[in-house]
């Protein structure tokens, strides 16, 4: 692979991040407010996604339970992508579509947040998780791309849709990662104020 091809990945990623920043900033701020409010009221955040989005779900949960950039008490977040016994039992006994929704039904309560990641906006099992969350009077923050797909049409006015204005999966995932870090930082600032370096 020549250097020009490598450089084009960096340039495209940077350009899409810059384009996304202005479009997504108000929605990310809404997500931070929604999540901070839920956490302040003793609720939790459940997170799900497939493939790279599963890794992002686990990354987000790890940042809340552990820490992001400053020492603080653990915050309740649970990635629904990690328990292989639950995932394989539900997929085998019911269907792959239900691997997250069963867990939302088991662990989710009114006032909790579901952070749902799908680069296409059309992941059937993420859609099923959203349905289960809305039935339980949970709020949803959806991270999508490619126009938002079917997930964009499922959300209520009380939910938050962060849809990356891009069609290439890798670029959408890269913006999702920045978004996750913005949310983690925003929650920390809401909890403690100021800047980590102050």
What is the mean predicted local confidence, pLDDT? Answer: 96
The number of distinct β-strands equals 5
Helix content bin: 55-70%
Rg calc: 17 Å
Task: Give the H and E element order.
Answer: HEHEHHEHEHEH
**Number of discrete domains:** 1
CATH class: Alpha Beta
**Main beta sheet strand tally, sense and closure:** 5 strands, parallel
Please give the count of helices.
7
Q: What strand line-up does the widest sheet have?
A: 2-1-3-4-5
In CATH, the topology is named Rossmann fold
Task: Note the beta-strand portion.
Answer: 5-15%
Shape descriptor:
globular
List the helices and strands and how they pair.
Blueprint: H1 3-40, E1 45-48, H2 52-65, E2 77-79, H3 84-93, H4 101-107, E3 113-117, H5 124-135, E4 139-144, H6 149-154, E5 160-163, H7 169-192
Parallel strand pairs: 1-2, 1-3, 3-4, 4-5
Helix pairs in contact: 1-7, 2-7, 4-5
């Amino acid at each position: 692979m020549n250097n020009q091809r490598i450089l084009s990945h960096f340039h495209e990623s940077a350009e899409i991040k810059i384009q996304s920043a202005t479009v997504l900033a108000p929605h990310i701020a809404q997500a931070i407010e929604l999540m901070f409010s839920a956490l302040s009221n003793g609720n939790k955040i459940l997170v799900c996604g497939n493939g790279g989005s599963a890794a992002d779900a686990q990354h987000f949960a790890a940042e809340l339970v552990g820490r992001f950039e400053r020492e603080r008490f653990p915050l309740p977040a649970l990635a629904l992508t990690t328990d292989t016994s639950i995932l394989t039992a539900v997929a085998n006994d019911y269907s792959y579509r239900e691997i997250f929704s069963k867990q939302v039904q088991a662990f989710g309560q009114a006032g909790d947040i579901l952070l749902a990641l799908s680069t296409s906006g059309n992941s059937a099992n993420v859609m099923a998780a959203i349905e289960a969350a809305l039935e339980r009077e949970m709020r949803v923050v959806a991270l999508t791309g490619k126009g938002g797909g079917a997930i964009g049409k499922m959300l209520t006015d009380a939910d938050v849709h962060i849809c990356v204005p891009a069609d290439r999966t890798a670029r959408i995932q890269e913006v999702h990662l920045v978004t996750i870090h913005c949310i983690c930082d925003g929650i920390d600032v809401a909890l403690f104020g100021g800047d980590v370096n102050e």
